[in-house]
Every structure is written in C-alpha cells, then in structure tokens.
Specification:
Elements lengths: L5 H6 L5 E6 L6 H11 L4 E6 L11 E6 L3 E6 L9 H17 L4 E6 L5 H15 L3 E5 L3 H10 L6 E5 L10 H15 L4 E3 L5 E3 L10 E6 L4 E11 L2 E6 L7 E6 L11 H4 L3
Parallel strand pairs: 1-5, 1-6, 2-5, 6-7, 9-13
Antiparallel strand pairs: 2-3, 3-4, 8-12, 10-11, 10-13, 11-12
C-alpha cells in the first residue's frame, strides 16, 4: 500500500507531459513514480530507468509500462549507467518515444538514484538533456541534486518542483538491494528453457568465454524478446537459458557486462548442455 505524502496531491494538478524524477536512493522516488502513474490516468505510462533495481524486467534492462498495452524492454546489459552510459541514454529516449507513439499523454520517468559524484551528476544532466522533460520533480535536499538543477533549470519550457522525502520512505541497505536484484533475476529465469538462436548477429561486447554472462536476444528494432544466461558457445552457436521469447524475429544477441553464472537457473536447465 502506498502512503502518499501530503505534498504529492498538491503537485498532481501541475503535472503533464514528460515528468522526470530525481533523487538519491532510499528517498521514495520509485514509490512516487508508481503513485503518479496510477493517479495520472489510463493515458499515463511509467518508464523504469533503473537497470540495477528494475521493477518491470530483469536486471540489466530498462522498461516501459503502458496501461492495458503490456510492457516494452530494452537491454542495456549493465547494473549501473556508469558501465553502459550510451546504451542507457539511447534506451531512455527510445522508450520515451515509444510511449508517446503508443498514445501516452503523460510519461513518468523513474531513473536510477545515481546522483553522487561527477559521474552521477553527468548521468542526470545527460538524461535530462536527452529526454527534455516538461517537469522535473526533485525529491529531497541534496547538494548533488542542486548542482544538476542549477544547470537544468535554465532550459525553456521546464518546470522544477521540490518535494521532501516522505517519512514513509523505506531505507534499504546495499545487501537488501543485492538480494532484491538476485530475487528479481531468479524470478525472471524461473521458466527458463534452452534456446539456440539461429542466424543471429552478435552485437557489441562478446567475451572470448561467454559462459555465465547475462545476455539479451533482441529484434531488428532493438526491443528485447528475452534474456537469459549463456550456458555454452559451441560450433559458433550460442546456447541461452532464457524464458520463451516474445513474438518477433530475433536479430542479434547482446551480451551484458555482468555474469550471474548458472546459479539463478532452475536445476534442470543447468544440465541441458
């Protein structure tokens, strides 16, 4: 159950178009994003921009939830933007464009809470530059956020709103975040089966020994059909343990920058090769 802060209701009438949320971890930003998505009506979409703590897909993906129209996923292959900045920025923009193409009137963008240091400030600045939001909602008072807003606030057509951290925001330790990520991955792979994609290209990074890496199988437009763990590469074929892919023609396999190994897979599938 979401317990809204009184300031949320007061802000709601002012919001429309692309709404970009910014705040550090444990500030309640994702809870606010879900609340806004519910309250903004059926023509609102939620863009999950946190590949390390995803709410729509497995770790290593960004997602878009459309009321009554399912979800779209993009594979970035990393758990933090610092490991895949170009892929993250491009995916955010493509997901936003897909939301409006599907008829959304309002899109709530919930990026990761990476705001600290030069890397965090640069990520937030570039994300805002790429997405060109109509509104920025900043949760909490933080010097790093102030530095980002000082640059963004001068852009024409942008409204900036400040909210306090809700007293109901739940603090999670790094260990709890890691457990969430592991549980999310295990749930995604619960129905994994052996896939041997035929005639697909290999995109970007492809390690000499790919066994155990998380990888995405994508269509020609770059949308994720499924993702899973590489079990083996043999005779130029990639053996992937993943859920059944969505309808569509696989075009390429994209290997991520993290290696969960076979541990999250169901016991039966580990012996498939």
């Amino acid at each position: 159950m979401i317990v809204p802060h009184p300031s949320w209701d007061a802000l709601l009438p002012a919001l429309s178009g692309t709404i970009y949320l910014i705040g550090p971890g444990n500030c309640g930003k994702t809870t606010l994003a879900r609340w806004l998505s519910d309250r903004c009506g059926e023509d609102a979409a939620l863009l999950d921009g946190d590949a390390g703590q995803p709410t729509l897909g497995p770790p290593g993906t960004l997602g878009l939830s459309l009321h009554g129209q399912g979800r779209l996923l993009k594979f970035v292959g990393a758990l933090t933007p610092s490991m895949a900045l170009p892929a993250t920025l491009v995916s955010l923009r493509l997901l936003l464009d897909a939301a409006y193409a599907a008829g959304a009137a309002t899109v709530i963008v919930d990026p990761c809470g990476y705001v600290g240091g030069e890397g965090g400030r640069e990520f937030q600045r570039r994300s805002i530059e790429v997405l060109r939001p109509d509104h920025i909602v900043a949760v909490g008072r933080d010097a790093e956020i102030d530095a980002v807003l000082a640059i963004a606030a001068g852009r024409s057509g942008l409204s900036v709103h400040r909210l306090p951290v809700s007293p109901h925001a739940r603090r999670r330790s790094q260990a709890a975040r890691r457990r969430y990520r592991e549980d999310r991955l295990a749930a995604w792979l619960a129905d994994a089966r052996l896939l041997v994609p035929d005639g697909v290209a290999r995109a970007g990074f492809f390690p000499a020994r790919p066994e155990g890496y998380f990888a995405g199988l994508c269509d020609g437009d770059g949308w994720l059909l499924t993702a899973g763990v590489i079990l083996q590469e043999k005779d130029s074929e990639v053996y992937l343990a993943a859920p059944s892919p969505l309808p569509g023609r696989p075009a390429y396999i994209d290997v991520g920058r993290f290696r969960p190994g076979p541990g999250p897979l169901p016991p039966g599938i580990r012996k498939a090769v």
